[in-house]
């Protein structure tokens, strides 16, 4: 399925979502429907490029747990990872995050 741009979806309640839009929005919301992942996105969005190793302490989770959560978020396109040596640096895909905030009327 092609990824929608942030300007292509109306806020919920303004008009009906098409089936493919609803499926994609549900995928994004599903990935965010976890307190650790919500916090992870908020930390990376605030800090900018963030090493996965720097997420262990603020999230109070092990490196394997952080890896699981970043993978879920990356699979739906909310995070982008870039490998530097042995570390992965994460950034938020602002266009994908904008889809969610726009659909929710934020």
Q: How many beta-strand elements?
A: 3
How many H/I helices? 5
Q: Give the C-alpha Rg.
A: 14 Å
Question: Biggest sheet, open or closed, and with what strands and sense?
Answer: 3 strands, antiparallel
What is the succession of H and E elements? HHEHHEEH
Distance between the termini: 25 Å
CATH superfamily: Winged helix-like DNA-binding domain superfamily/Winged helix DNA-binding domain
The average pLDDT value, as a whole number, equals 87
**Percent of residues in helices:** 40-55%
Count of spatially separate domains:
1
CATH architecture descriptor name: Orthogonal Bundle
CATH topology: Arc Repressor Mutant, subunit A
Strand content: 5-15%
What is the general shape? elongated
- Name the structural class: alpha+beta
Please give the order of strands in the largest beta sheet.
Answer: 1-3-2
Uncertain residue segments: 1-7
CATH top level? Mainly Alpha
């Amino acid at each position: 399925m092609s990824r929608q741009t942030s300007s292509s979806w109306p806020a919920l309640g303004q008009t009906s979502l098409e089936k493919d839009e609803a499926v994609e929005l549900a995928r994004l919301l599903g990935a965010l429907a976890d307190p650790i992942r919500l916090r992870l996105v908020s930390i990376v969005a605030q800090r900018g490029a963030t090493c996965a190793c720097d997420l262990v302490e603020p999230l109070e989770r092990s490196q394997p747990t952080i890896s699981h959560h970043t993978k879920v978020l990356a699979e739906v396109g909310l995070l982008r990872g870039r490998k530097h040596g042995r570390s992965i640096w994460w950034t938020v895909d602002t266009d994908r995050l904008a889809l969610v905030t726009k659909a929710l009327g934020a």
